[in-house]
Specification:
Layout: H1 3-30, H2 39-44, H3 47-74, H4 81-110, H5 116-157
């Protein structure tokens, strides 16, 4: 891959992370029950928000691994064990995110007096997106693993 293309994609990954972080920090202040709350009340009196921030760690770990894979591609080292490991980590992060979303949907379904439709719709979209990422990472991981094994065999026979 050309170095310019990988740098561009790495910038996109960083911007996606910064955009998600900005949304995570901005949205709780405008959400219905927190509109007139202090920052302390917003961040320390809402256990669901703490749960969402904990779940976001899987998202950011996957973004870091994607950044790393793109860096390896830019160095022409995509067919290497670190790339396979990074893709495996992305797959596990996506699966963990699915688990976090399912638990969040169960919490939302048990909440009283809340409008559940928006939260459930967002959960379904996040679950489907994470499922696509997990599937793509698993496929690419398998392909790269086979390529690394073939490369190792050809290096041993030469």
């Amino acid at each position: 891959m050309k170095r310019g293309s990988t740098i561009f994609l790495q910038i996109i990954v960083v911007l996606a992370g910064l955009g998600a972080l900005a949304l995570m920090l901005w949205f709780p202040h405008i959400e219905g029950r927190n509109v007139h709350s202090t920052p302390f009340q917003v961040y320390f009196h809402d256990p669901f928000l703490a749960y969402a921030y904990t779940a976001s760690m899987a998202f950011y770990l996957a973004l870091y691994q994607a950044y790393k894979v793109l860096g390896l591609a830019g160095q022409n080292r995509i067919f290497s064990a670190p790339a396979v490991k990074a893709l495996r980590t992305i797959k596990y992060c996506a699966l963990a995110l699915i688990g976090f979303v399912v638990v969040a949907l169960l919490i939302i379904s048990q909440a009283e007096g809340e409008d559940r439709a928006g939260g459930v719709a967002l959960g379904v979209v996040l679950t489907l997106g994470s499922l696509v990422v997990a599937t793509a990472a698993a496929i690419f991981e398998r392909i790269l693993q086979k390529a690394v094994e073939l490369k190792t065999e050809s290096d041993l026979t030469v």
